[in-house]
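Cross-check.
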Amino acid sequence: MLKDVIEHLRRILPDAFKDEEPGSMIPWIRDREIRIEKPEITGPLTAKDVIFVYPEAEIPEKDEEIGREIEEIGIEALAWYVPFHRSKNWGIYFRVRGICYLSNFFKTNRNINDINERMKRAFEVLFHHEFFHFLTEIAATHIEMIYAKLHIINTLNIQIRRNVE
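Predicted model, tokenized:
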């Protein structure tokens, strides 16, 4: 159904869409990063559906580079939502190092030693944050469809420029 909404909006407001590569929006994507094609998801996906790592795996306690990036651009240093208004490759992009970084919060501040439990909680926090961006875009899309005017693309341009600069 969402695919139909996007196609309809593309027809009535073609100027509302761009086809940028996610790397032009996400500061931490580099050519050397691993990319995984998103599978078609037929139902809700939660962290309970995912097993992340071998229980004996070591996760670095400190990642000062990501710490600095969080100070600069906030939680988007860990995960990023690419809007369907901006790219055909839209969706939530998770940074593996970001999930690891946040999982250490649950170890040091919540005393959770099970690595998979920590990773699942970190994934859930990041997923829900980025999913809220998606819901916001959906709400703005409804406004665009009702009024047949561009609303979100101008807001997205301002926000993305702020995050990248």
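The CA atoms of residues 63 and 101 lie 7 Å apart. The first strand starts at residue 79 and ends at 82. Passed to J.P. for a second look.
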